[in-house]
Amino acid sequence: MRGDRILAPIREARGVPRWVLWAGIVITTFFVVLALFAPLISPYDFDEYRTASGERFGKQQHPSADHPFGTNVLGTDVLARVVWGARTALEVVILAVFLSLAIGLPLGLLSGYFGGRLDRVLVLIMDSLFAFPYLLLAIVIAFLLSDKFGQGVGTAAIAISVVYVPQYFRVVRNHVISVREESYVEAARALGAKPRTVIRRYLLQNVIQSVPVLATLNAADAILTLAALGFLGYGIQPTDASEWGYDLQRAIADAGAGIWWTGLFPGLAIVALVTGLTLLGEGLNDVLNPVLRRRPIQAVVLPERPSRLPAEKVGV
Amino acid sequence: MAAGQHTTSLRTYALTRLALALPMVWILLTMVFLLMRVAPGDPISAALGGRLSQEELEQRREAAGYDRPLIVQYVEYLGNVVTLDFGETIIDNRPVTEVIRQNGAATLELTIAAFLVALAVGIPIGLLAGRFRDTPIDIAGRLFGIVIYAAPVFFLGFLAQIVFSQWLGWLPSSGRASPEVSFELESTTNLFLIDSLLSLDFNAFTDVLSHLVLPAVTLGLVVGGVFIRLVRVNVLQTLQGDYIEAARARGLPERNVVWHHAFKNALVPVITVIGLQVAFLLGGAVLTEQTFNWPGIGSELIRYLNNRDYIAIQGIITFFAVLVVIVSILIDLVNAWVDPRVRY
Predict the structure, then answer these.
(1) What are the tens digits of pLDDT across the range B151-207?
(2) Which of A242, A279, B60, B139 could join A84 via S-S bond, C-beta 3.0 to 4.6 A?
(3) How far apart are alpha carbons B111 and B107 in whole angstroms?
(4) Which of A271, A289, A293, A297 to mutate to test the interface with B (most CBs of B within 10 A)?
(5) Residues 6 or more apart whose Cβ sits within 8 Å of residue A51
(6) Where are the alpha helices (DSSP H) in B136-293?
(7) Nearest residue of chain A to residue B289 (CA atoms)
């Protein structure tokens, strides 16, 4: 029953929002499948540079039957890098979104509910973080962490989540403040509900609705941030996993020689996945946000016209 | 605001806004200091460890004052920033202000050009998409905005280099100017476009301009993608306003309603939001500079990062932090000037 109610707006969506939503679902699912079944789908490992018989693939080879997307400067298969890259991207992004939610949501709830000095301090800190160029922030954090812990999925995810915590915090806090004074919350307080109960039962339930849209859009953004980190050399250690941004960094040098396939395919993968997630997020927003939602005009079925009553019976 | 009612003067607003920005600057500076100085230990051995003997390292640490308690260094750091001293790099002994002066001009030239491109792309498409909601124009505009936003700057840059430099051979793909031009160009402002104009060197001007086109358009398109969305949403909201309905009810032609009543009002809040994109623009500039070998602050930052020069990184990051806060104040002032309702 509950699930039914949650999914209802999606089913009711019509027109453009419906197409946007479905396009997003299809594209995102495609990449999730790539990520989950990378070992089955990919023709080679992401760092494989020899055939089974020990023959090298060759460097920067044109696309061919053996290597549909060609090979790159390291002599590995570009198609394999693209497929395995989906796995890296989703791993990092899921971890990053989870981390930023886990920090931003509770802080936003507490700050919004209790207000006062805690609120002011947190808002100031978060606003400062938010004002700062987010990419620079991520680079510096990734740089510092990689010095200590190396460049792995965890490092990249933490660097990215530092960027998004302030966003969750802001949205959640502002939402809580607008809901806090609603009469049902006041009623709960008047009945003697503890802050804990009020926050968990009334505020969280209410605020959690804005999370799916925000999380999807942030995930799209996080893919770009990860790629940017990789491009600048502060993403994932290239020997550990395949990462699209790193591949593009190597490809820039190829551009001067007119080699297009080493950069085109990883780049298209980024564009497609980010577009998919953005469409999904925007579609959800159009469908779930009551302000933007446009319900289809429902045809009103009039009851059968009663046979005309004789005028005298209506009474004059 | 009804006539006669008192609105805060712009000056009072400016002072209040400034006072409110100070804690933010302080917090940013403190965070930068904590991140850059507490985390790694001392900067000298991070950058030069392994290259100098233990004794020499010790000497340089003492000379730079890194053997003093952190709190002393922290106060000194804050004091230096107030006097606009951002420290001196370790690997090549340049004052950070010098780095900003020399390479900042390149970044400034790139970001201004990109910003203009972004406005030229974002505002018309956004207005049209919002005006003709759910029509093919809207769908095309939105899709363009989404896809262009989804494309990393360095991927667009890669494509641009392949197509316009390699295949068509129209435009150069890296640097700010050809070697001979940058050698001969008399640099007074370090903004090459202006320098070449000042020296009335037309060849140099076209050379510099041709180098600027690809990076600026690449970065501008990405930022423009964000503008499309912002403008579109604002137009949609404005068109729902009561006064729009009133204007229509008075029988004004739809053209007038849209131009005079909707678009102007839709663009006021856009000033603020576009202002917030300065941070995004700066991040994008770092990537664009790397892609096109553009010798700006971003490229320098990456070079110092790779060399683990913590003082240079700290200085550049500090500069960015201060810059972003200043820009946000300016944006708010412009906004308050345009729209008196936002004043405190």
Answers:
(1) 999 999 999 988 888 788 788 877 777 777 676 777 777 777 777 777 777 777 787
(2) A242
(3) 6
(4) A271
(5) A57
(6) 136-150, 153-160, 179-184, 192-198, 202-239, 242-249, 254-256, 264-291
(7) A232
Residue B71 included in any domain: no
Q: How many domains does chain B have?
A: 1
- The pLDDT of residue B5: 46
With a cut of 50, say whether residue B4 has pLDDT above it.
Answer: no
The answer to whether B283 faces chain A, any CB pair under 8 Å, is yes
Chain A touched by B317 (CB under 8 Å): yes
B187, B194 in Cβ contact below 8 A? no
Q: What are phi and psi of A61, to 5 degrees?
A: -80, 140
Assess if residue B210 is contained within a domain.
yes
Candidates B238, B185, B240, B224; CA nearest to B208 is B185
| Beta-carbon contacts of residue B66 (< 8 Å; ≥ 6 apart) | B42, B43, B44, B73
Query: CA A137 → CA A59, A122, A215, A232, B106, distances in Å?
Result: 35, 18, 20, 13, 22
Q: Sign (positive/negative) of CA torsion A134, A139, A142, A145?
A: negative
Q: Please give the backbone phi and psi of residue B33, each rounded to the nearest 5 degrees, phi first.
A: -60, -45
The percent of residues in chain A predicted with pLDDT above 70, rounded, is 85
Q: Is there a domain that residue B322 lies in? A: no
Q: Would the CB atoms of A228 and B40 count as touching at under 8 Å?
A: no
Q: Please judge whether A128 and B28 are an interchain contact, meaning their C-beta atoms are less than 8 angstroms apart.
A: yes
Quick: pLDDT tens for A23-77. Answer: 899 999 999 998 888 788 777 777 777 777 767 767 767 777 677 777 777 778 7
Q: A124, A134, A136: best mutation site toward chain B, by most B Cβ within 10 Å? A: A136
CB contact under 8 A, B161 and A143: no
Nearby residues of B15 by Cβ (< 8 Å), 6 or more positions away: none
ipTM: 0.82
**Residues in Cβ contact with A273 at an 8 Å cutoff, skipping those fewer than 6 apart:** A27, A28, A31, A86, A89, A220, A223
Q: Which residues of A43-78 are buried (b: 16+ CB within 10 A; e: fewer)?
A: ebebbebeeeeeeebeebbebeeebebbbbeeebbb
Give me B155's structure tokens.
């991927």
Nearest C-alpha of chain B: how many angstroms from A26? 16
Mutate to test the interface with B, among A27, A93, A123, A132 (most CBs of B within 10 A): A132
Residues of A in contact with B166 (CB under 8 A): 255-256, 258
* Contact assignment for B328 to A131 by CB distance below 8 Å: yes
Q: Give the pair of three-digit tokens for residue A295.
A: 């319900």
Nearest to A275 among B24, B147, B291 (CB): B147
CATH at residue B184: 1.10.3720.10
Tell me the C-alpha distance between B191 and B211, whole Å: 13
Residue type, A49: Y
SS3 content of chain A, % helix, strand, coil (to 5): 70, 0, 30
Q: Please report residues of B whose CB lies closer than 8 A to that of A139.
A: 286, 301, 305
Contacts of A247 (CB under 8 A, 6+ apart): A72, A78, A81, A85, A230, A262, A263, A266
- Distance CA(B280)–CA(B287), nearest Å, equals 11
Neighboring chain B residues of A222 at a CB cutoff of 8 Å: none
A254 pLDDT more than 60: yes
The answer, yes or no, to whether residue B110 has pLDDT greater than 60, is yes
Quickly state the pLDDT bin for B3 (edges 50, 70, 90): very low
Domain presence at residue B36: no
- Structure tokens, A182: 């609603």
- Residue of A122, A224, A286 best to disrupt the B interface, most CBs of B under 10 A: A224
By the CB < 8 Å criterion, does B164 face chain A?
A: no
Give me the pLDDT at residue B1, please. 39
